[in-house]
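The material for today's practical consists of a large collection of protein records. Read left to right, the backbone structure tokens trace the chain's path through space. An example says more than a description, so a record of this kind follows:
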Amino acid sequence: MILVGVAGVTMLDAWITPRRWRVAVPPLGLVRRGRSDEPVDLPIGFLRWWFFTPLEGRLFAATFDEGKPTWLLRDDDAVVELRSGLCERGPRLLAARRKRGRAESVDECRGGSGPGVGDHVRYEDAGSGLVIELVLESVSAEPPGEEAFADPDVEGAP
């Protein structure tokens, strides 16, 4: 995942797999790496969960209030709350994950079932106060090349 800021400057470059991760913040000259660990100051655990297993876990509670369903899942030592509803574009999904005293959430608004221009998402880390808001400006019809999935620490990787 690459977040691009003003004038096309890379603000964040996160490469995360189920077994390893690397996060770079080029404007700060910061590069950090790890394996299965989940550092408390980076959203590695949350991003792993959101990208690879967002609905994994054992359902232990559900409710339907004012036409809006809510589900509670237990995923190892994490508790996940999922809510669905509508936003100004269409489907909305709110997910909050709590693990070992850390609370993170994502609020996603889409115009359809897949990603589209104008879709937006808000990520919040309650502990640090970090909030990231993204709006999708374009969507490629072509899948990314294999180099997009290459380990950035391997010789010859982009």
About this structure: The chain has a mean pLDDT of 87. Residues 77 and 99 are 6 Å apart (CA to CA). Residues 44-52 form the longest helix (9 residues).
